[in-house]
Amino acid sequence: MLKTAPLVVALLAQPPRLDVVARLDWRCFKYVRTCVNSGNRPYIEFNVRNIAKAKAFYGQAFGWTFTDYGPEYAEFSDGAMKGGLTTTAAPSPAGGPLVILYAQQLEAARDSVLAAGGSICREIFSFPGGRRFHFKDADGYELAVWTQV
């Protein structure tokens, strides 16, 4: 399990623009819905097929903790940001924003994703100011992990 630094979330156009990596307060997208809570922090919600599998993956890969709110919803936290996993709608992993997580040790993050059952869909590459890779979780959502150089 890899403990990540606070999440860095990026809203990127498809194909990804590598010059846009920032903390954003953004709202209401097709498959990853983000709402700004009263603490003015982003909140990301994933539609998943199986909450237990999603919790196992993200808990193992990134050390997220969870609070269950019934059989259809679990909230996650990385210590700095919160979000949710829900089965109230079908997963829709194609299109939409790209969520980018930050890790100080990129190779360790990649190993954690693989050990948790994720798949790498874009190997580690460099961009001005950093390096990153993209992965898919069990529901087919593509996320990325980056680090500074």
Number of strands: 9
User: End-to-end span in angstroms?
Assistant: 23 Å
CATH fold title: 2,3-Dihydroxybiphenyl 1,2-Dioxygenase, domain 1
SSE pattern, N- to C-terminal: EEHEEEEHEEE
CATH superfamily: 2,3-Dihydroxybiphenyl 1,2-Dioxygenase, domain 1
The residue-averaged pLDDT reads: 77
Instruction: Give me the CATH architecture, please.
Output: Roll
Provide a descriptive summary of the structure in words.
The protein contains 2 helices and 9 strands. The longest helix is centred in the middle third of the chain and has 12 residues, at 51-62. The two termini are 23 Å apart. The chain has a 5-stranded mixed beta sheet, with helices on one face. Helix 1 packs antiparallel against helix 2. The relative contact order is 0.23. The protein is globular, with a radius of gyration of 14 Å. The chain has helices spanning 51-62, 106-115; strands at 32-34, 43-47, 65-68, 73-77, 82-86, 99-102, 119-127, 130-136, 142-148. Strand 4 and strand 5 (82-86) form a beta hairpin. It is 15% helix and 33% strand. It has one domain: Roll (2,3-Dihydroxybiphenyl 1,2-Dioxygenase, domain 1), CATH 3.10.180. The protein has 149 residues and is α+β, with helices and mostly antiparallel strands. Residues 3-40 have low confidence and may be disordered.
